[in-house]
Amino acid sequence: MSELLPQELRILVAVAEYGGFSAAAAALGLTQSAVSHSVRGSETKIGAVLFGRGRTGASPTQAGERAVGHARRILRLYEVMGAEVRAAGRGAPDRDTVEGVLRIAAFRSAALHLLPPALDRLAARHPGIRPEVRVVREIGPGTAGEVAAGRADLGIATLGAAQGMPPGLLSGVLVEEAYSLVHPAGHPDPKALPLMDWDENCGSYTRSWWQAQDWIPRATVKAEDDAMVLTMVGRGLGMAIMPELSLREAGDAVDITGLGPRGPVRRVGYVTTPESASTLAVRALIRELRSEGS
Questions:
Q1: Residue 108, Cα to own-chain centre: how many angstroms?
Q2: Are 271 and 167 in contact (CB under 8 A)?
Q3: Each residue's pLDDT tens digit, 185-231
Q4: 272 and 161: one domain?
Q5: Domain-located, residue 1
Q6: Which one, 66, 154, 205, 237, has the greatest CB density within 10 A?
Q7: How far apart are CA 171 and CA 65, in angstroms?
Q8: Angle at 191 between CA 189 and CA 196, to 5 degrees
Q9: Which CATH number characterizes residue 25's domain?
């Protein structure tokens, strides 16, 4: 197979992101025929159809999704290579050699409680790094999917979740957090309350533990996120089983009861690609995240 050139990679990414050849051409300053020709050439080189063509535009096939993900990751390496080589060429001291944008994807409670201290230390040690954090729901591909698709350099993810990990990624555990029973403060019989749950938690690997507990009813109230669950529990509308990161926002309106040594534990960690794991910025962030979790 012939190798794709950087411009061909950029065109594949643009067609996927803009949903069509004409829109991609306008964004790149090319003609529609040039974009179409380039995509056909890329498909010939790869030996697979990358986009389904229709009256409303173009959308990546399964092979196209994989190709576009690799294209984003390769183009990102070009950017990182330029930043790292320029800094090294200036002969700057070590603390200043790490610079440029660092793209991070994290689910809500990790972005709120786990990332900020690590980013504060990162900024103190490496002021040239510019973090860009996107909050991504842990539903479907989740944060790991953002990394696999080339939209993030590193993701903070729930490890061991039901949806599994995209192939070819590297991960490491940062914290292990126990789940607890959270219920309205002072309630005489919290286990008699209806169970509340949220969309991201519904696919949790802890579901098998839940099913083995005869005192936990089927969830009758589903909320959009864990913050909403915590608010509704505080208003006396039910009880919930939540991990420690989610409970850092708990106030006096709720009580928290541990589930004992056999209760479920959630592993939260980082996810990155092998190529990003070797870059200075990602390595620096992983060091700070590990320092936070230790």
A1: 10
A2: no
A3: 999 888 888 888 887 775 555 666 767 777 776 666 777 889 999 99
A4: yes
A5: no
A6: 154
A7: 22
A8: 125
A9: 1.10.10.10
